[in-house]
């Protein structure tokens, strides 16, 4: 069965809340055992959210904070390895550039650092633990 085209759009935190929550709960809370009280924070209200779709089905999400910090990048397990993450990140980076933010930063899980390096991010910290998972800080742009 051929894959439908992957597309990404800016999401509405209120209108798209159930879909964003479904993806992040599956990836971070169920798969990675992040405590729910750490997954959901007050930053969600002021963030720009993104949803990736295969056809009409939401399969990935990410958020962009006003500071230029990118986070909560997540793709449902069955759709990994299909460049969904690339499509999401390209959309997020395009949005930051549209806003005149030439520098983007994020905390990456260490295993995912090579993925972000391909997109132009550089590791700028030692490893540290966040919710029990090794992370590094990464920056892209000036």
TrEMBL record:
InterPro entries: Acyl_CoA_acyltransferase, Bact_Acetyltransf, GNAT_dom. One of its GO terms (molecular function) is acyltransferase activity, transferring groups other than amino-acyl groups. The keyword Acyltransferase applies. It comes from the Bacteria. Keywords: Acyltransferase, Transferase. Residues 6-142 form the N-acetyltransferase domain. Coiled coil: none annotated. This is Predicted N-acyltransferase, GNAT family.
């Amino acid at each position: 069965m051929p894959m439908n085209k992957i597309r990404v759009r800016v999401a509405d935190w209120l209108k798209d809340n159930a879909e964003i929550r479904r993806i992040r709960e599956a990836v971070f809370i169920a798969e990675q055992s992040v405590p729910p009280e750490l997954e959901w924070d007050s930053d969600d209200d002021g963030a720009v959210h993104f949803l990736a779709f295969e056809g009409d089905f939401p399969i990935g999400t990410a958020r962009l904070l006003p500071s230029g910090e990118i986070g909560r990048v997540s793709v449902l397990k069955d759709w990994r390895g299909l460049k969904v993450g690339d499509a999401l990140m390209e959309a997020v980076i395009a949005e930051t550039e549209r806003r005149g933010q030439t520098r983007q930063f994020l905390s990456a899980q260490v295993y995912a650092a090579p993925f972000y390096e391909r997109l132009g991010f550089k590791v700028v910290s030692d490893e540290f633990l966040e919710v029990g998972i090794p992370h590094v800080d990464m920056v892209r742009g000036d």
